[in-house]
Design brief:
By secondary structure, this protein is α+β, with helices and mostly antiparallel strands. The protein is 15% helix and 36% strand. It has one helix at residues 10-52, and strands at 58-62, 65-69, 75-81, 83-84, 92-96, 99-103, 117-118, 126-130, 133-137, 160-165, 168-173, 180-185, 187-190, 197-201, 204-208, 214-220, 222-224, 235-238, 241-244, 259-260, 267-271, 277-281, 288-289. The radius of gyration is 25 Å and the shape is elongated.
Length: 290
């Protein structure tokens, strides 16, 4: 135990306390900035997890009829529908004839089959159309009067900073890598995960990893990512054919589809070259049978 060595001059205590407080305030301001950044990313992550955390049931098409299968492609809910959507937040839209409704993961109806249009749920609300009017409903099918939450800002760089030189762009990684990508690209977009960047030269796009190496060559017409699913599995396009990008920066699937929608709840809806819809999982497995 330390014993007092006697009184300390008041002036000395005041200076020391002042300096300590100034340092504490500086640390506090920085900490508040860090917490704010974590909070914003946490909100984005929660929304992405709600979109990408699959419930274990995937829309399955057999011929022209739809049901739901598990990851082994075994049918769990019967082929009772003319079309079906993915389970998001415990609910999925289904269609019989021209009318849409919603079911839960047991197949129980959450709403009547009464809508002329229906969307996936997002943050507890889905957009439907009934009798020519478009509005939002909650999981219980009741019409919502409150407006949706404003979308969070996602146009920012998370894995580093852009480097500009003579009209070209490079990238300095500050997260997960110390690599500096030379300023030789016409455009660079941060994918916010796995050290991946989308890069463009002229009209063609490719993908760079955290070591500055091209994992996907600059030969693609477009690579599109969306914040709604945490920028996961971007859609890749070349010559009117579509596929998906895997987390390692390489192709998840061949570019073999006539259309491809963003991944939602760990599955994505595609259209085959002969015009038929179906779903893929995050391993690129197809869930349909002719």
């Amino acid at each position: 135990m330390c014993e007092s060595t006697g009184p300390v001059p008041i002036g000395f205590v005041g200076v020391r306390t002042f300096v300590a407080m100034r340092g504490f305030q500086s640390v506090l301001v920085r900490w508040r900035q860090v917490v704010a950044g974590i909070f914003v990313w946490g909100l984005l992550l929660n929304e992405a997890l709600a979109q990408t955390a699959g419930p274990g049931l995937i829309p399955f098409r057999h011929g022209n009829r739809w049901g739901y299968a598990n990851a082994q492609r075994h049918l769990v809910l019967p082929l009772a529908y003319d079309d079906a959507g993915p389970f998001v937040e415990g609910a999925a839209w289904v269609r019989q004839g021209p009318r849409y409704g919603y079911i839960d993961t047991t197949g129980r109806a959450l709403t009547l089959l009464q809508y002329s249009r229906a969307s996936n749920f997002q943050q507890g609300r889905a957009t439907v159309e009934l009798a020519g009017k478009t509005f939002a409903i909650g999981p219980d099918g009741q019409r919502l009067s409150t407006p949706p939450e404003p979308e969070l800002e996602t146009d920012y760089l998370e894995q580093g900073d852009l480097v500009r030189r003579q009209g070209k762009f490079g990238f300095r990684f500050t997260v997960g890598s110390a690599t500096v990508v030379p300023a030789e690209y016409d455009e660079i977009r941060d994918l916010h995960h796995d050290g991946l960047l989308l890069v463009r030269e002229g009209a063609k796009w490719g993908v760079l990893n955290g070591e500055g190496q091209l994992t996907l060559p600059l030969v693609y017409d477009a690579v599109q990512a969306t914040a709604a699913n945490g920028f996961a599995y971007p859609v890749v396009e070349q010559a009117g054919r579509f596929g998906y990008l895997a987390p390692d920066g390489k192709l998840l699937t061949r570019l073999q589809y006539a259309a491809a929608e963003p991944f939602v709840a760990d599955v994505a809806r595609v259209t085959t070259l002969d015009g038929k819809p179906g779903y893929l999982d995050s391993h690129g497995r197809e869930y349909w049978q002719e």
